[in-house]
Amino acid sequence: MAWDTWLEDYYKLYQKFLYSPETKDNLIAFYNLCQEVRASKNKLMFAGNGASASIASHAAVDFTKQGKTRAVDFNEPNLITCLSNDFGFENFMAKAVEFYAEDGDVLVLISVSGNSKNAVNAAKYAKSRGMKVVTFTGSAPDNQLRALGDINFWLGSRAYNVVEGLHMVWLTTVVDMLVGQAEYAVA
Question: What is the pTM of this model?
């Protein structure tokens, strides 16, 4: 394998999608929304499947601790299995939002495909409650989740690790915007 060429092509994917005028606008819009959430003492609710669930957990901690914006995620195994058992896996995120949401909260959903039924159902439920929905997706531009979002971070790639990596970069960028700097003590 010619690793030099492979690695150069691989990182060109990151460079292609990392930052654009649309991304800048979304980062600022999400920052402003987080400021509103923080000022009103509401919360961000994060959810995703698989690696996106891990990103959701990481984001919830960083937004809470560094960003001083209350945040939760729905990755507790007892919660997932309880709600999935009683309402079906495709409804567990929507039910979690139903049980945990308060007026003024914001739902942040992370899905590479943008077509995960549980994430789409959660977005539909949140919209029916008048909640704002922020989406982080990849793949096709017409994915279902993106169509339901108020702020949509999207990159047209099916390279899962690249999409997930950029989702994490964009989320932590907003945390650092809330802090007001890139380097700071976290203790």
Answer: 0.97
